[in-house]
Design a protein that fits this description.
- The chain has a 7-stranded mixed sheet with strand order 5-4-16-15-14-6-7, sandwiched between helices. It has a 6-stranded mixed barrel with strand order 21-25-22-24-23-26.
- The chain contains 27 helices and 26 strands.
- Helix content is about 30%, strand content about 15%.
- Among the domains are: about 210 residues, Rossmann fold (3-Layer(aba) Sandwich), CATH 3.40.50; about 190 residues, Dimethylsulfoxide Reductase, domain 2; about 110 residues, Barwin-like endoglucanases (Beta Barrel).
- A hairpin with a 2-residue loop joins β2 and β3.
- By secondary structure, it is an alpha/beta fold.
- The chain binds iron/sulfur cluster.
- Iron/sulfur cluster binds next to α3 and α9.
- The site of iron/sulfur cluster has 13 residues, from α3 and α9.
Length: about 750
């Protein structure tokens, strides 16, 4: 063991040891803490300090109240430009989910079929030995990682750098593939960079808001609160097959047939063109491809669109007229668009509507994708998965050489290819090409589409490592090695929210047992692997933030004007871009006010394509369409965290359920509360029936949060973003014998 490795381990051991003792200033000042130990210098033991929430991409600021160095409660920050003093139930319970019996507190190694506690030293030796053996036999590309939008930017960047530049991996993707890849791809193709243009102030400044496949009332409650505060009595249009909570409060709900959205938006474009309800000056000055787009939408007659979507012609005309009459029209979308086999083109059909009507770059406008996870935007810019760090391109020699210079490494260490996408990594596992997998802060055995297929892949892996705050996730339970990680609130770094705002996460609680911050784990992996020297400058999250600033210089996401964490803290977060020399005059900034986009010609592009057939349409045998989505504001993804809060558990149904239309229920002799079987070509599950007209006849809805939902879903993917299409597959139903209440 070399000296620096010994020192690193020593520091880690010391801090692990001391962490269980009283919190002291000496500990805070321990050098090389890597986010370990107790409170950082910036946090006093008896103060109230603000940090950004670690659940969703809204990025609410929360005031955490400390007493004797212990977090004893939290309240939403009143002065935050993001949440204006509000928080949803998850935010209020953010601290309580840290205290759970199933927190991973020690490394666990599978021996004789059982996961058993081992020291960090043994765990890290095993980690490196097993992965290096696999690489020696099967080549460097035979190991890969699957990461997350839940860890801080600095950890994402360090992981991507250690794995790809240090360990020689080419393939690593994030669970952001499941939620944001479509929006990222759509923006890149249309604008020349993955650049959501909006600011949350736009919720309050629009006079027409069009929500597509989005249920912010549940999924982003604070954003929805801001819509409710809009003083302009706005038209709120919801395009969604279900009568969601948001749709119920809209001025117009368009209950389209599942996956007919692309046809609807091309039809709307045709009506706008026919009536000259467009902005010719904007189109001429700031866009490309309009002529081809006009030719493309020519065939989307009102009759065709009505027939495909199930909407009355008058409704479609009313929708087009409302967009025309709006002075500040904003288009918002989330997973109903992104999680689709043709999501990129649907997102771009909304971008096209914004461009052709000049509804972009002005207050209250925009084609706006709302992100899911707290740091999905950070992952898009700084995870080193689909992009080389800072929105650079792995395939560009110039970009690789630029990054090599900035990082003081050899350019040959940077892969010259993009990573396989998430499902392609899994397919490579299935083919036996990838034999070792490192899963960080995500739970694919629960969340991945067509779950049974994923679980069958376990036997194909020679070594599965899971790094997580809980040892009880479905994926951790099948791992060979579990590395215990600190959670949000137990470490430092930055998140980037949906409106591109970079905000600070602070350490306000000690991690339990021997859990280490992901940052510390990545650093230790680099040391044990033998590439620690490469990352000498990456010594703390804030040091990495300075590296990311350097990398961002001259990019659309330039953040060289942010001096340090203190500046972020004082400002309550800063939206990118913020270049050196800029003054922070307005802390609500949107992109494209000057009509200048990021393609070489500075113009945005109209992009379109004929709709594709539904990958799995309802049939005689499977006559229902299954819709999936969020179930309540108190649940988060696979519930690994939200299920730990007694308060949150009271706010959502314990058992999985399916919404069924009353006509279907009557025909199948199903009453509310009956147990029913839901069957697809991939699996069969039991759920409780909830009879409601919120779903249309022929459709059922099951929340995504329950562990069996994805036994049904069909693994189809968008060809551009490679995002899975969770939202529509064919299923059959029947009431289970003896299944009534
Ligand atoms: Fe946290 Fe999102 Fe709730 Fe805000 S809306 S408190 S960021 S979970």
């Amino acid at each position: 063991m070399n000296a620096s490795l010994a020192a690193l381990l020593d520091t880690a051991r010391n801090l692990i040891h001391q962490k269980s003792g009283p919190l002291t200033r000496e500990l805070v000042q321990t050098p090389g803490a890597f986010g370990l130990g107790n409170l950082p210098d910036s946090v006093q033991p008896d103060q109230t300090t603000s940090l950004v929430c670690g659940f969703c991409s809204t990025g609410c600021s929360l005031n955490v109240h400390l007493k004797d160095g212990k977090a004893i409660g939290l309240t939403p920050s009143r002065n935050s430009t993001v949440n204006l003093g509000m928080a949803c139930p998850k935010g209020w319970e953010a601290l309580s989910v840290l205290e759970a019996d199933d927190r991973a507190t020690s490394p666990l190694l599978r021996k004789d079929g059982k996961l058993q506690p081992v020291s960090w030293d043994s765990a890290l030796r095993e980690f490196c030995q097993r992965f290096q053996n696999i690489q020696q036999i099967h080549g460097s590309e035979s190991i890969a990682f699957l990461s997350t939008g839940q860890i801080v930017c600095e950890e994402m960047a360090l992981l991507g750098a250690v794995a790809k530049f240090g360990m020689g991996m080419v393939h690593g993707d994030g669970n952001t593939r499941q939620c944001m890849a479509t929006a990222a791809t759509a923006y890149k193709q249309s604008f020349g960079f993955d650049a959501p243009p909006f600011s949350y102030a736009d919720f309050e400044e629009s006079d027409v808001l069009v929500f597509v496949g989005a249920n912010p009332c549940l999924a982003h409650p604070i954003m929805w609160e801001r819509v409710m505060r809009n003083p302009h009595s706005p038209e709120i249009i919801v395009v969604d097959p279900r009568a969601t909570e948001t749709a119920m409060q809209a001025t117009l709900h368009c209950p389209i047939a599942p996956k007919s959205d692309l046809t609807l938006f091309y039809g709307l474009a045709r009506i706008l063109i026919e009536n000259n309800w467009i902005d010719p000056e904007y189109i001429a000055n700031y866009t490309n491809g309009y002529e081809d787009f006009v030719a493309h939408v020519e065939s989307y007659s009102l009759e065709r669109v009505s027939q495909k979507t199930g909407l009355a012609p008058d409704t479609i005309l009313h929708l087009a007229r409302t967009i025309h009459e709006g002075k500040r029209v904003s288009f918002w979308w989330t997973m109903g668009v992104n999680q689709s086999y043709e999501g990129t083109r649907v997102a771009q059909s909304l971008i096209n509507l914004a461009l052709m009507t000049g509804n972009i770059g002005r207050p209250g406008t925009g084609a706006n994708s709302i992100t899911g996870q707290c740091n999905a935007m950070g992952s898009r810019l700084f995870s080193n998965t689909t992009n080389l760090l800072g929105g650079h391109n792995f395939e560009s020699i110039a970009d690789r050489e630029k990054l090599a210079n900035l990082l003081n490494i050899e350019a040959s260490r940077i892969p010259d290819r993009n990573s396989l996408a998430y499902h392609e990594i899994l397919e490579a596992v299935e083919r036996g090409e990838i034999r070792g997998l490192w899963v960080i802060a995500t739970n694919p055995a629960h969340s991945w589409i067509n779950q049974n297929r994923l679980q069958r892949l376990r036997d194909k892996l020679d070594f599965l490592v899971v790094q997580d705050m809980y040892h009880s996730t479905e994926t951790a339970a099948i791992a060979d090695l579990v590395l215990p990680a600190a959670a949000w609130g137990e470490k430092e770094g930055t998140f980037i929210n949906s409106e591109r705002r970079i905000s600070l996460v602070k350490k306000v609680a000690p991690a339990p047992g021997q859990a280490l911050s992901d940052f510390a784990i990545f650093r230790l992996v680099a040391e044990y692997w033998g590439c620690g020297e490469m990352f000498a400058e990456w010594e703390s999250p804030e040091a990495v933030f300075q590296i990311l600033k350097r990398i961002s210089a001259g990019q659309p996401c330039d953040i060289t004007g942010i001096t340090d964490y203190q500046m972020l803290d004082t400002a309550g977060g800063i939206q990118w871009p913020f270049m050196a020399g800029e003054t922070l005059k307005d802390n609500q900034r949107r992109l494209f006010a000057d009509g200048q986009y990021f393609h070489a010609d500075r113009k945005a592009r109209f992009l379109c394509e004929a709709p594709r057939p539904l990958p799995e349409a309802p049939s005689e045998k499977f006559p229902f369409t299954l819709l999936t989505g969020r179930g309540s504001a108190a649940q988060w993804h696979t519930q690994t965290r939200t299920s730990k809060s007694a308060v949150l558990r009271k706010l959502y149904p314990k058992h999985i359920f399916a919404e069924i239309h009353p006509d279907d229920a009557e025909r199948l002799e199903i009453a509310g509360g009956d147990m029913i079987e839901v069957r697809s070509l991939r699996g069969t599950i039991s759920v409780r029936a909830l009879v409601t007209a919120c779903v249309q006849p022929g459709q059922i809805f099951i929340p995504m949060h329950y562990e069996t939902t994805n036994q049904l879903t069909h693994d189809a993917f968008d060809p551009y973003s490679k995002q899975p299409s969770y939202k529509a597959c064919a299923v059959a139903l029947r009431r289970l014998k003896g299944g009534s209440r």
